[in-house]
Amino acid sequence: MGGGPYGTVRAMTDTRTSHHQLDDLRREWRALGASSDAAAAVALLSEREPTLARHCLRDLAHLVDLLEPRGGLSQLERAEIVAMLLEHSVEHPLLRRALLQTMLPGIVAVARRLDWGRGRSEGPTIFLADLITATYELIVEWGGQRRAFAAPDLLNAVRCRMRRRLEAERAPVLAPLDELVAADALPGVFDQDPTETLASLLRDHRAELDPIGAAALYGREVLGLSYRELSSMTGVSARRLAESGRAVARHIFS
């Protein structure tokens, strides 16, 4: 796609986006992730985060592969690396692109929860393109922040943002432009949602929670993913996710 070496996301706003946009992103990533720029970016990240040295990372493609459920890392280790990517994404554009790449399965799950933007005239293909673009924009906006639950936080924020946009499109008379801008800048204005309370509780108690259970509860109740989907994304069995999630719920609500 056009827009320069890091321009795929910008190009995806075009209404001619291919139905194979995820394949397009993966193909592009195979080239970008193994490039000399990607090697320089992962060297920069490893310099900022010495704990990465033990992985002997060659480039960002190697890093993204490591973040796959079968990459050999624990869920907590993957979460820590994603937090690093977000924090240091302001230092190299390919760090943002790597973070987007590793979040694609979660973005598809958010699209599913939002029913692929049903009711929009453009259809699900453009909705997914808009969702990917919105996620990238949020990565840029949040760059420099250190968040323990970076990926779930990003997915939840983009879900709320896209939901508000869908509501505005379906009822434009009730959503003046100035209100939409204000709501987009202040997450939660239009989201009187119990899942936001749950997300806050998980953040408040994260130091004392089992990270697998916390992620399972967050993914299930906030992001609306099934245990099977979470298992595919994390490499942890659906049964363990369910049991750990219930244990965390009992702890924070007791």
Topology:
Blueprint (H helix, E strand, L loop, with lengths): L7 H4 L9 H12 L3 H13 L11 H7 L8 H14 L4 H21 L10 H19 L7 H21 L6 H9 L8 H11 L6 H12 L4 H8 L3 H16 L1
Helix pairs in contact: 2-6, 4-6, 5-6, 6-7, 6-8, 7-8, 10-11, 11-13, 12-13
Task: Explain how this protein is built.
The protein has 254 residues and is an all-alpha fold. It folds into two domains: 8-192, no CATH class; 193-254. It has helices at residues 8-11, 21-32, 36-48, 60-66, 75-88, 93-113, 124-142, 150-170, 177-185, 194-204, 211-222, 227-234, 238-253. Mean pLDDT is 80; it is low at 1-5, 10-19 and 172-194.
Order of helices and strands: HHHHHHHHHHHHH
> How much beta, percentage-wise?
under 5%
Count of separate structural domains: 2
Work out the helix count: 13
Mean pLDDT: 80
User: Largest sheet, described in full?
Assistant: none
Q: Report, as a whole number of angstroms, the end-to-end distance.
A: 51 Å
- Number of DSSP strand runs: 0
Radius of gyration: 18 Å
Notable characteristics:
254 residues, mainly alpha, 66% helix, globular, disordered N terminus
In short:
The chain is mainly α and 254 residues long. It has helices at residues 8-11, 21-32, 36-48, 60-66, 75-88, 93-113, 124-142, 150-170, 177-185, 194-204, 211-222, 227-234, 238-253.
